[in-house]
Amino acid sequence: MTVVLGFICAGIAVVCFGSNFVPVKKFETGDGMFFQWIMCTAIWLSGFAVHIYQGFPEFQPLAMLGGFLWCTGNVMVVPIVKMIGLSLGILLWGTANLIMGWSSGTFGLFGLEKETVPMPVLNYVGVSLAVLSIGSFVLVKSDASTKRKSTLEEEEAFIVNTRITQVEEPEKQNWIDKLSPSTKRIVGISLSIISGIFYGVNFDPPTYLMDHGGSKDGLDYVFSHFCGIYITSTLFFVIYCIAKKNKPEVYPSCILPGLLCGLLWSIADICWFVANANLAMVVAFPIISTGPGMVASLWGIFAFKEIQGRRNYLILAGSFGLTISASVLITLSKVLK
Questions:
Q1: Number of domains into which the chain is organized
Q2: Nearest Cα to 202, choosing from 220, 223, 228?
Q3: pLDDT one-digit tens code per residue, 236-275
Q4: Contact call for residues 255 and 24 (beta carbons, < 8 A)
Q5: Is the full-model pTM beyond 0.85?
Q6: Is 168 a member of any domain?
């Protein structure tokens, strides 16, 4: 039953991670700093609910480091989505996440206990395929930037036409809007990989505690982990407000969608803690790291129309094939005797 529970939680995590940015997709979030703070508020509230459910277990300061690592990667998400789109962004950072998470468990990085597998050859082949999948994902061209620009132009035209006595102000642009299309693509891809690396190591601090005499119940570390997320996001937002001379880009319309994004993410991450405890990182990471990209791609194809054209579909099909093959081989390397 523990294995069944692990796979059920992994499935829930895949769906929620692949969908957690969908609620805010149609809303303006500016440079993303205000949005990430709102999202992290919902995450902390969810963590506090788990803390109550677990009977107020001992607070673990080291687990907060995992929250800091995750939040640092998450600060990059909104710029990534604006530059290369939701689908391609999740596919890229999900693959980097897989490689780092696998490496942490396999090689015992950062003081973790090494997770041995019965079939190491399958394990290494699977990771090699995951690396190849990164190269195939970057060939997929997203129309997210072009569509966003068209929408903004329509909104600006409406404002101009309805303005009667208001004095015209210069066009409001953030640093993302000032980049050229090619620069957006390069920066977006680079940030996706960096973000994925931070995501891939965010479970290492609580796993370290479990490996060195701490509680084996992953849920006991959720609140501490989520406190690290909220404190870090608040610190980033304060620094941002100071840098903007107390004139941050605040978009009230993204508050409720941002809270919903945080709720979906927290459900996914809580399930990931349970999956790690019941399946081990070497099995949970391949499933949960790669699955959301496929879910996000379905959103991008059918709901947002970001990925279109026969060429893109063929490349995406090949990318899916590499990702699925990598995940299956890594999983089989653990379960086969």
A1: 1
A2: 228
A3: 999 999 999 999 888 899 899 999 999 999 999 999 999 8
A4: no
A5: no
A6: no
Question: Higher confidence at residue 136 or residue 251?
Answer: 251
**C-alpha to C-alpha distance for 257 and 129, rounded to whole angstroms:** 36
Q: Phi and psi (nearest 5°) for 223?
A: -65, -45
Let me know: does 66 contact 124? Beta carbons within 8 Å.
no
| Token representation of residue 183 | 């620069």
Average pLDDT over residues 319-327: 82
* 162 part of a folded domain: no
Phi, psi of 56 (to 5 degrees): 55, 65
Q: Which domain holds residue 330?
A: 2-155+178-335
Residue 208 CA to residue 111 CA, distance in Å, equals 7
The closest alpha carbon to 30, from 248, 259, 265, belongs to: 248
- Whether 160 maps to a domain, the answer reads no
**What pLDDT is recorded for position 87?**
66
